[in-house]
C-alpha cells in the first residue's frame, strides 16, 4: 500500500507516489485537463490508484500566506469530496504554501531549462507536498 500526493491546479494535476514503506515520495506525472474539468481526470486517477494499491491521498491545500482560505481552497475541498465519493479512499489535506516556489528553486539550482521546468513543476510540487506529509507522519507530528 502506498500514498498518492496531488497538486491540483486549474488545468493540471501533479502526481507523486510514496514507496511501500511510506518514507520516500517520487514525482510520477502531470495530468493536463480542461479548466476545472475534474471529472475528466478520474479514469486516469483510478488506474493509478488500482495499479499502485493506494491507501491514502494527500492533497495539497493552497492556503493564502496569511493562513486564510480563498477560492482555490474551496475548489480543492470540492475536489477532495469528489475523490472520496468516487474512490472511497481517505483524502487528507496538506498545507502546500510555497511548494511550487520550492519546486522551482530546486529546478533552477539543477539548471533545468525553462521548457523542462514547465513540464515537471506540478509533479515536483506534488512530490514536495507528499514528502512533507510523510516526514510529519514518520515524526509523529500530524
Q: Which structural class do the helices and strands define?
A: alpha/beta
Strand content: 25-35%
Work out the helicity level.
40-55%
What's the arrangement of strands in the largest beta sheet?
3-2-1-4-5
Describe this entry's structure for a reader:
By secondary structure, this protein is α/β, with parallel strands linked by helices. It has one domain (2-139): Nucleotidyltransferase, domain 5, CATH 3.30.420. It contains 4 helices and 5 strands. Strand 2 and strand 3 form a beta hairpin. Helix 3 crosses helix 4. The longest helix has 26 residues, at 114-139. The model has no long low-confidence stretch (mean pLDDT 87).
Name the descriptors.
25% strand, five-stranded mixed β-sheet, Nucleotidyltransferase, domain 5, 4 helices, alpha/beta
Please provide a brief summary of the model.
This protein has four helices and five strands; from the N terminus they run βββαβαβαα. With 142 residues, it is of the alpha/beta class.
List the helices and strands and how they pair.
Blueprint: E1 2-8, E2 12-18, E3 25-32, H1 42-52, E4 54-61, H2 71-87, E5 90-95, H3 99-109, H4 114-139
Parallel strand pairs: 1-4, 4-5
Antiparallel strand pairs: 1-2, 2-3
Helix pairs in contact: 3-4
Amino acid at each position: 500500500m502506498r500514498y498518492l500526493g496531488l497538486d491540483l491546479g486549474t488545468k493540471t494535476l501533479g502526481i507523486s507516489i510514496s514507496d511501500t514503506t511510506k518514507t520516500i515520495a517520487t514525482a510520477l506525472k502531470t495530468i493536463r485537463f480542461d479548466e476545472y474539468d475534474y471529472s475528466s481526470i478520474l479514469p486516469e486517477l483510478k488506474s493509478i490508484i488500482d495499479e499502485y494499491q493506494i491507501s491514502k491521498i494527500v492533497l495539497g491545500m493552497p492556503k493564502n500566506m496569511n493562513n486564510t482560505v480563498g477560492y482555490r481552497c474551496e475548489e480543492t475541498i470540492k475536489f477532495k469530496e469528489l475523490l472520496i465519493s468516487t474512490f472511497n479512499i481517505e483524502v487528507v489535506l496538506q498545507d502546500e504554501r510555497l511548494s511550487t516556489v520550492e519546486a522551482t528553486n530546486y529546478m533552477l539550482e539543477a539548471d533545468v531549462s525553462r521548457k523542462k521546468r514547465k513540464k515537471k513543476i506540478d509533479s515536483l510540487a506534488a512530490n514536495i507536498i507528499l514528502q512533507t506529509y510523510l516526514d510529519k507522519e514518520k515524526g509523529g507530528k500530524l
